[in-house]
Amino acid sequence: MAIAFKQETFRDDFSYRNSAENIRRFPFPFDRDEYMYAVNMEPHVKGQKGTAFENLIDIDEHYVAEMRDRALVLKEDPLRYQALPHMMAAQWDTLELLMEEQAVGFPEHFTLARNGDQWRWINRPLGIDDTFTFGDRSTLPCEPLEYITRQAQGDFCIVDQRDGNLWMDAGMVTTQADWSLDFDIGMNFMEWHGPVPLAHQMGVFDRALKFLLNLQQGKPTRRFNWTMTINPRLDTSPENYHKWGPDRATVTTGNVGDKVHLRVEVQSLWRLPRSNAILFVIRCYLMNMNELVTVPKWARRFPRVLRTLPPELIDYKGLTRYRQTTIDWLSKFDDGEPTSPGTFPD
Amino acid sequence: MLVEGIKSRPVYMGLSIQPRARRHIFALEGEGAHALLDRKAALDSTALSRSEILYAPRGSQGKGNDEALRALGADMFFAAPTIATLLFRLRGTLTTAHMGTRLYIAGTEGFIGQAMIVALDHGMDHASVITEHRGSLARRVQCVHCKGVTEDVTHSPFPCGHCGLPLLVRDHYSRRLGAFQGVNIDAEEPGSAPDPEELFL
Ligand code: HEM
To answer: Is residue A91 part of a domain?
Structure first.
């Protein structure tokens, strides 16, 4: 079924909203009434129709608007896209993977026709119809990773594997939860995770790295991450923190429903065939509290999760100023009934 | 001592002389001179005949080591008037360096970071460069907002030397930039920045 793409904004007048159907397919990340870091990885396999897991690379009603927002971010700050020179094979791997997955999952919107290394890519929602030579950089208007990630929802990092570690050597990062690709590029797994509290001591990163070093081609894995954002703003980069930071002080009991958003990242990890690098996809979903409480199970669960959060996580995720106000507002929707296991609506 | 436990900060292991290297290049800043002078015993005549010492005096403790360094009798000795001129010379040296060359860097963390960038630009692996921290704990900080780098930061917060925003100095270090990250401290409530504290002396 063709998706009706919305005209909306993630800045200025913030007209982004979820349709009722899109709320139902929201990847709510909590399978119980509390939250703590863990090595929360599971096979990235297709899920039920009508969920965000129906396809392994997900496109939704926000696609066109999100791609427009990415273009705006890149015009202001081209350093959000960077790739070190040795990553060219991995860039082509990524282009292939994203084109294939998007064309298979959404044939009414994307078509990939291959004839040897002559490829034709049609992206109907963005009005693109390009023919190029796979592997020949000069036949595309920009580098292959930039080309395809200007046409794919979510942020993307490619990590190179060497010396028993993973190195963040390329990325397109415009919809991030407060970290900088320009600062982190070239770092290894432990280094870029440096600022995360508690998880190092818990051994989470040691185990996660070991797991990823053995990731097999054709067996992608995924995990959830989440935080909260005031206003439906995709670009919550540290670069622009002085512009969006003041939003955090604007939350009142009267505007929680509209302003406060749950921000969920479905992160999938893919071993790439030619380069042996790993593609890390950070697909970001935003939903405001008015939308969240339309699902009774989520309305009960989310305030409980917020209550149990360790102080280190509250601070790291930047929730300090508005967590209590949000809990108070949400508590109206929590009748104290037990919640069912799992993340999906009842 | 540097604070430990910052995962992204390099560990500076100390200048251990690698006897089998075909060429030793020492880039020394200020008190970094003592990192080498303290290891005189490890420098035999063969090692010295293969050594090039580059030195930029700096700070009250780190000046006046020219003669002592020169007296080591290395193959080449260069006293640079500033860090910038030392780095310029280092670039030239590394451009013509051959296999088996070892680079040693000693001095403040900001200097190590800048000399390391030159090494990385010349294709050296960061893990093969031998480093020792000497001298002040001042940090080299990149403003994440305007990307300007401020040298010798001793306080947090401090005003960015480029865009002027009051910056918190985070414990997050980029080897590629040779700098810690500075983030606007009062973004959520402009004007609420606390008084600067002297943290990195
Ligand atoms: C190669 C793939 C990965 C990349 C590129 C990546 C990247 C990042 C980055 C850039 C951050 C933000 C750090 C900051 O504050 O500056 C982060 C946070 C984090 N990462 Fe990863 N990560 C990867 C895989 C994983 C895996 C497999 C785990 C599994 C446990 C994990 C767990 C976390 C956690 C718990 C946080 C803190 C998030 C929060 O509380 O908001 N990461 N990651």
So the answer is: no
Q: Is A236 in the pocket of ligand 1 (CB under 6 A)?
A: no
Asked if the structure places residue B9 within a domain, the reply is no
- Domain end, chosen from B116, B133, B150, is at B133
Query: What's CA A120's distance to the chain center, in Å?
Result: 27
Q: Which candidate in A24, A223, A307, A321 is catalytic?
A: A223
The CATH number that applies at residue B114 is 3.40.50.80
- The number of domains in chain A is 1
To test the ligand 1 pocket, which listed residue (A176, A178, A196) has its Cβ within 8 A of the most ligand atoms?
Answer: A196
Last residue of a domain, one of B133, B151, B185: B133
Same-domain pairing of B162 and B82: no
**A124 assigned to active site:** no
Nearest to A241 among B147, B176, B187 (CB): B187
Tell me the residue range of the domain where B58 lies: 23-133
Same domain, B111 and B173: no
Distance CA A47, CA A32 (A): 20
The domain tally of chain B equals 2
With respect to residue A169, please indicate whether it lies within any of the assigned structural domains.
yes
Beta B101-107 vs B23-29: how paired, if at all? Answer: parallel
Using the Cα atoms of residue B126, residue B132, residue B137 and residue B138 in order, give the sign of their dihedral.
Answer: negative
Residue of minimum CA distance from atom 36 in ligand 1: A196
Distances (CA, A) of A272 to A210, A266, A332, B5: 17, 19, 47, 33
Ligand 1: does its nearest atom lie under 6 Å from the Cβ of A286? no
Asked if residue A164 is part of any domain, the answer here is yes
| Ligand 1 midpoint to CA A193 (Å) | 6
Tell me the pLDDT of chain A (346 aa) as tens digits. Answer: 799 999 999 999 999 999 999 999 999 999 999 999 999 999 999 999 999 999 999 999 999 999 999 999 999 999 999 999 999 999 999 999 999 999 999 999 999 999 999 999 999 999 999 999 999 999 999 999 999 999 999 999 999 999 999 999 999 999 999 999 999 999 999 999 999 999 999 999 999 999 999 999 999 999 999 999 999 999 999 999 999 999 999 999 999 999 999 999 999 999 999 999 999 999 999 999 999 999 999 999 999 999 999 999 999 999 999 999 999 999 999 999 999 999 999 8
Query: Looking at residue B62, what DSSP letter applies?
Result: B
Kindly determine whether residue A239 and residue B183, on different chains, have CB atoms separated by under 8 Å. no
Whether residue A220 is preceded by a cis peptide bond, meaning omega within 30 degrees of 0, is no
Counting one residue from A and one from B, how many pairs have CB atoms under 8 Å apart?
Answer: 64
